[in-house]
């Protein structure tokens, strides 16, 4: 069995070389025995004998380690320790060698718990080589006890499978050194650890155990969270994580490491956050998490009753189709001539599209036209220029005709400012007509400020109608 020790330790080293930080050290303590010659716990401890050995340990994570043990020791017992058995006068001494492989479960990682002390449980399997030497014929008088002959002639296997289990504590002195203390029991599934069975209690198997201390030295890359990623490569060195996440955890299991996960405790597809309605807006920012809607509406759907592309809450006319420029309200056609007011130069008088919504001048003695302006503006549009061109042509054809130009403003400014603005609007038209050949005696202009509104000043559409120049053409 001793010849197997070195090959087995080499095998353990090769098997575990892909793992993490190593620990290797010495075991010093004592073996104790429970069997035919120890009817009580007191006797078990009374017969404790020295033991020593080696250990080799590798961490398998924050809570598990794999450990190889090799130790030698001695077991002994004597009826002389017990007055009830002194007449039997049996005793034994057994040399043992054990090789075992143990799985350790640590209750917590000392680094993560902020403590140097780590408790652990262990269990595993191994091989036991035993050499019992039983003293069966030490009686002073009388015949030997029953069963001595059978035990003296017994043939049994001295190489046994053993099942160790127990509890221990490890205390880190520093990053390299640690002290440990542990105790555990073993069963070798035999009643001949002591070489005695029939002369004792053949119905009960023998047990043995080890209690002692360990001194271990650590080497290899430091991995304080025990996740298999060395601290110098671990993006989360104090949190056990996964190798493909550079040592960081994925608490919600959504495939996104916690540092990169906007919702580390809730699995989801959007940077790790859930999206219940699948609208691309994460639930924590979605005001309507069960109804799909666009991001610019905070994940809520757009209700558009009239289908004009403007959401109802932004649509001033939610039951009527209208453009965005009119906030969803339909275009106005006050004179019902089929030309919207915003393009109709005579919005209150039916006219033709060829004359920009105004009636044709031919055959009439008086015709009104209107030009509408932007707020605080006196600029003529190209369309308004075309109308003025047609008026200039009409005045040129009929030298007796005249044109009165009346400027108006909305009530947004002060009275004096509105008066000045309306006069400038009328004058710009006057000067335009002069530049296009109209005689000065044929045209006159005035400004009326905000004194004569076409509509109440309660909305933008009404104010647009009031920012105007009226053109009264006299054909006499």
Throw out a few tags for this protein.
476 residues, alpha+beta, 4 domains, 29% strand
Number of strands: 12
The strands making up the biggest β-sheet line up spatially as 1-2-3-4-5-6-7-8
Oligomeric state of the chains present here: single chain
Q: Give the low-pLDDT segments.
A: 4-20
* CATH architecture field of the largest domain: Beta Barrel
Mean pLDDT: 83
CATH class of the largest domain: Mainly Beta
Short description:
This protein is of the alpha+beta class and 476 residues long. It has helices spanning 2-16, 41-46, 110-113, 148-152, 382-397, 415-435, 460-466, and strands spanning 22-34, 49-59, 64-78, 91-106, 117-135, 159-172, 177-187, 207-219, 366-372, 402-407, 443-447, 468-474. The longest helix has 21 residues, at 415-435.
Strand and helix layout:
Elements: H1 2-16, E1 22-34, H2 41-46, E2 49-59, E3 64-78, E4 91-106, H3 110-113, E5 117-135, H4 148-152, E6 159-172, E7 177-187, E8 207-219, E9 366-372, H5 382-397, E10 402-407, H6 415-435, E11 443-447, H7 460-466, E12 468-474
Parallel strand pairs: 10-11
Antiparallel strand pairs: 1-2, 1-8, 2-3, 3-4, 4-5, 5-6, 6-7, 7-8, 9-12, 10-12
């Amino acid at each position: 069995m001793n010849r197997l020790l070195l090959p087995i330790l080499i095998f353990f080293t090769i098997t575990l070389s892909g793992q993490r930080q190593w620990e290797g050290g010495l075991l010093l303590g004592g073996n104790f025995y429970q069997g035919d010659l120890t009817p009580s716990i007191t006797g078990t401890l009374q017969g404790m004998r020295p033991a020593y050995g080696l250990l080799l340990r590798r961490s398998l994570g924050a809570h598990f380690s794999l450990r190889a043990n090799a130790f030698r020791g001695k077991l002994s017992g004597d009826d002389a320790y017990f007055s009830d058995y002194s007449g039997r006068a049996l005793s034994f001494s057994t040399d043992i060698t054990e090789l075992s492989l143990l799985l350790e479960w640590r209750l917590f990682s000392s680094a993560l718990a902020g403590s140097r002390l780590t408790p652990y449980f262990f269990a595993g399997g191994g091989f036991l080589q035993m050499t019992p030497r039983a003293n069966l014929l030490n009686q002073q008088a009388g015949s030997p006890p029953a069963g001595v002959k059978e035990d003296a002639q017994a043939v049994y296997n001295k190489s046994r499978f053993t099942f160790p289990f127990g509890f221990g504590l490890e205390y880190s002195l520093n990053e390299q050194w640690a002290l440990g203390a542990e105790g555990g029991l073993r069963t070798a599934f035999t009643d001949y650890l002591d070489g005695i069975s029939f002369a004792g209690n053949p119905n009960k198997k023998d047990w043995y155990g080890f209690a002692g201390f360990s001194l271990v030295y650590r080497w290899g890359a430091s991995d304080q969270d025990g996740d298999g990623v060395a601290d110098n490569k671990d993006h989360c060195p104090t949190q056990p994580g996964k190798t493909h996440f550079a040592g960081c955890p994925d608490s919600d299991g959504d495939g996104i490491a916690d540092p990169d996960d906007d919702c580390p405790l809730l699995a989801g597809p959007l940077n790790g956050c859930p999206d219940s309605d699948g609208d691309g807006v994460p639930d924590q920012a979605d005001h309507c998490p069960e109804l799909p809607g666009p991001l610019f509406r905070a994940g809520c759907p757009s209700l558009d009753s009239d289908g004009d592309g403007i959401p109802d809450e932004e649509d001033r006319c939610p039951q009527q189709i209208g453009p965005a420029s009119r906030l969803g309200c339909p275009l106005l056609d006050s004179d019902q001539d089929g030309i919207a007011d915003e393009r109709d130069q005579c919005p209150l008088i039916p006219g033709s599209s060829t004359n920009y919504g105004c009636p044709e001048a031919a055959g009439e003695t008086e015709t009104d036209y209107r030009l509408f302006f932007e707020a605080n503006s006196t600029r003529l549009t190209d369309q308004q220029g075309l109308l003025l061109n047609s008026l200039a042509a009409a005045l040129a054809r009929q030298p007796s005709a005249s044109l009165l130009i009346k400027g108006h403003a909305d009530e947004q400014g002060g009275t004096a400012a509105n008066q000045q603005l309306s006069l400038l609007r009328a004058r710009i038209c006057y000067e335009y007509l002069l530049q296009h050949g109209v005689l000065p005696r044929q045209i006159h202009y005035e400004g009326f400020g905000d004194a004569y509104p076409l509509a109440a000043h309660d909305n933008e559409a009404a104010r647009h109608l009031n920012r105007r120049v009226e053109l009264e053409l006299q054909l006499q």
